[in-house]
Write a structure and sequence with these properties.
The chain is of the alpha/beta class. Helix content is about 55%, strand content about 15%.
Length: about 200
Amino acid sequence: MLYIFDLGNVIVDIDFKRVLGVWSNLSGTPLAVLSDRFTMGEVFQQHERGEISDEDFAGKLCDEMGIALSFEQFATGWQAVFVALRPEVIDIMQRLRNEGHRVVVLSNTNRLHCNYWPQHYPEVAAAADHLYLSQDLGMRKPEADIYRHVLAAENTAAADVVFFDDHPANVLAAQALGIKTVHVTDRDVVPAYFAQ
């Protein structure tokens, strides 16, 4: 079997409220205002596909939110999204590989975050056979092509795959291709799946 794990809120806990909290403190803009203005819109998606630089992304997102931050301040907030590793999922990934299964990560991420999480959570790469990252592939979930790319690269039929993700749209897109999916709504879902 091929097991595909999303990164955020599947292997590593993330929280965008922490990002906005740092930006609020640095810019003097109320958190409620930033919460209203922050969207994962086109600029966000372009960054995840690697279509714009980190600096362009920072500038455009600051413009969208109406705040003035240096790139360093922006990056400090942006990295605050990461909370902690889920060691129980790392253990499961390693166990699956020891049993002869193929284990990969498929994540919508970006260059700026990839300067951070691999250094702080080296366990992720160590527990996976391969990392499929949106900004390297020029596509992102829930686009069907990114799933097709992984299936082709892994030379695996959709019926022989289990995919874990926290976003309903990503889960539905994978299901549409015949991939077995598990919607990860909290940290108990993955361990419970393998305890069955």
